[in-house]
Amino acid sequence: MANAPVQRMSQLMAKTLRDDPADAEVLSHKLLVRAGYVRRTAAGIWSWLPLGKRVLANVERIVREEMDAIGAQEVLLPALLPREPYDATGRWDEYGQELFRLKDRKGGDYLLGPTHEEIFTLLVKDQASSYKDLPVILYQIQHKYRDEARPRAGILRGREFLMKDSYSFDTEDEGLAQSYALHRAAYQKIFARLGLDYRICAATAGAMGGSKSEEFLAPAGAGEDTFADCPNCDFAANTEAISYELKPVDAAGVPALEEIPTPDTPTIETLAAHLGVQASATLKNLLVKVDGEIVAVGVPGDREVDMDKVEAHFAPAVVEMVTEADFAERPDLVRGYVGPQGLGEKVKYLADPRVAPGTSWITGANKEGMHAKNVVAGRDFEVDQYVDVVVVQEGDPCPNCGTGLKLDRAIEIGHIFQLGRKYADALKLDVLGQNGKPVRVTMGSYGVGVSRAVAALAEQTADDKGLCWPAEVAPADVHVVAAGKALQTELALDVSEKLSAAGLRVLCDDRAGVSPGVKFTDSELIGVPQILVAGRRAAEGVVELKDRKTGEREELTVDEAIARLTA
């Protein structure tokens, strides 16, 4: 393969900026725009400039190499997809407003693919007829589309993004487990090569469906996910996936339910203050509407309800908060004084496992200005279903060992699912088994956020001067800076050509009329791992080599610098 030509900044289609974009909230957004890697086209839609495209291509290359190494075969499927397969699996409706829907000139329904389970299933249905055609792993690196309500954080949460999605097809569950393990190991290699700090966390399957699911999360303050990490054992999980065992208690000694006057106490805070008790002794009952039907959710009064968990539990149903109009239509529901013991069959009651059978509570009496004490779960009211719905807090016990959990923010960079037969059932994907009878195929789905990985790397590796790329994903191996006029520029270009001839990828700042100070600032902002400066000692054939990450500097002859960089 021919060596890449030197990229001269005097010809580069990219301009660095001194100030952060006005709409930038997170570090990667600020720096990728300022350093000339990306530019905003519309809300949640980004253009990749030459430097950014190089980094993106490097991430793609690493992902592709590791997928090929496990025997996966690359294909490319369309992004514009017909409605019918998504109707068959129910996801045309399940995706809700996040799905980009459109019609062609004949009135046919189409969508822009948010993910491709259905289309890969149909591809294998068309191509595989026998167990001899399986197992197989197929993958693509393709743009995905989701109509985010609040696209933000630059390329971290866009409406168009680049993703590697792969799918395994096996005839037996044991084969699915092996395909899953192959992907898990491949992802560990991918993220190690990218230079990302990451955690493998238990996760919920969400709209994807299936049984086992794990996320690969990159800790970062800009992350949209919160994960829990146990400092004592190997437990790690997205907080949405944490569940606790239901532990009933003995309520034999609890007195009978008693109603007590509590005027002007419609909130947990006012109730606890009025009675002189801890909020944890009270039972909070949140009312929501699930596809229009009112449902109550009970949690200890000192905890908050995690609406993401509630919505995930009821998906694809629409979950909304009750309104004043809803209370007006239901006089039996007294706002601020709702208690589970008076709901009966009129309202379905969900509760967090902390509201276990035998636990005793102070809660609403379903009468204005009245509460009830000694209200015992399982004695005075029944829970229709237990679901982990509280917001996980720092210090909550680890489900494995009981040690207090640590919480951190993270960016989701990968997700792997054992889908099972959800999509094969919906689309009737069968092959002939060894006995000549049809066998239903079992599937796995595995994603890597290629463009998100770029943002995650920027978040994790940047410093106060700018970006600081790991060598394997950087847009160049060395950034040569001509810190002066004709003599320095001549030397910089000569060194650049020699480095290029030796196989290195070279970015050379040969811009005329730009001060050395600006060039130095830009070299740190752009973040190439090695910076080579042709400056004050250029006439002597001496250059300065700087390590971008450590800041270490060393003066070398041109030959020494070339030998060092090409070693």
Automatic annotation (TrEMBL):
Keywords: Aminoacyl-tRNA synthetase, ATP-binding, Cytoplasm, Ligase, Nucleotide-binding, Protein biosynthesis. Catalyzes the attachment of proline to tRNA(Pro) in a two-step reaction: proline is first activated by ATP to form Pro-AMP and then transferred to the acceptor end of tRNA(Pro). As ProRS can inadvertently accommodate and process non-cognate amino acids such as alanine and cysteine, to avoid such errors it has two additional distinct editing activities against alanine. One activity is designated as 'pretransfer' editing and involves the tRNA(Pro)-independent hydrolysis of activated Ala-AMP. The gene is proS. GO terms for biological process: prolyl-tRNA aminoacylation. It is found in: Cytoplasm. Its EC number is 6.1.1.15. HAMAP family: Pro_tRNA_synth_type1. GO terms for cellular component: cytosol. Consists of three domains: the N-terminal catalytic domain, the editing domain and the C-terminal anticodon-binding domain. Belongs to the class-II aminoacyl-tRNA synthetase family. ProS type 1 subfamily. It comes from Streptomyces muensis. It comes from the Bacteria. Residues 54-470 form the Aminoacyl-transfer RNA synthetases class-II family profile domain. Its main location: cytoplasm. This is Proline--tRNA ligase. NCBIfam families: PRK09194.1, proS_fam_II. It catalyses: tRNA(Pro) + L-proline + ATP = L-prolyl-tRNA(Pro) + AMP + diphosphate. It is an enzyme of class 6 (ligase).
